[in-house]
Amino acid sequence: MAILEAVGLTKRFGGLVANQDVTIKIEKGSITAVIGPNGAGKTTFFNMITGFYEPDEGEILLAGKSIKGLRPDQIATRGITRTFQNIRLFKQMTALENVMVGTHSRLSAGLLGILFNTKRIREEEEKARVEAYQLLEYVGIEHIANEAAGSLPYGLQRRLEIARALATNPQIILLDEPAAGMNPRETVEMTEFIRLLKKELDLTIILIEHDMKLVMGLSEYIHVLDYGRKIAEGTPEQIRNNPSVIEAYLGKSATEVS
What we know:
ATP-binding, L-valine transmembrane transporter activity, 2 domains, ABC_transporter-like_ATP-bd, L-isoleucine transmembrane transporter activity, ATP binding, Rossmann fold
């Protein structure tokens, strides 16, 4: 059953067509990769799904209902969250405070409560603090809860960003190059962690990643973009042997070698 459907998505920036007629269906509970060379339109696709860009054409359906045109915060409350290719943490805030930001989309107290620091506000903030610490424990970095996010090593920042995304209580999490900048040991750990997220939290995971070993070992299904168009989809084995994919990554000459 498809939990998320992108149907005929097109996005233009002046004369540049970043995505053209892209249709991708994501099965509930799956780990799906969206891959392609640099400039293929992968992050633009993520940005449309999460409300940072509105498609010029096409439709986005979450459990059969349109989310096209919604703001990122509205899409987050409906169960879709993400990380970014370039880590976007609040660097001067502690790790715990960064995760607490993710819980705020689920808080119910209004502006007056915030201004007057009511009992309800204090109770919600304490609940958010406890939940945030539990998420830091879950991703294995509770020991740096009170350290400034900007002072953390790169690998820990990646885990912190995932913890903040999990704080929104998502159904679907989009991971934009989760292993970027990691050494081989960290990449293996991240691969196992992503697999654990699916198993333990019943998440649907969509990832953009250039590490083909990670993609082929982790993904159940793969969609390939090139110059903004989808050129292939299939299982890892099907994608590995697809001439169009080989040409996109290695050049036309690679497909002509006997």
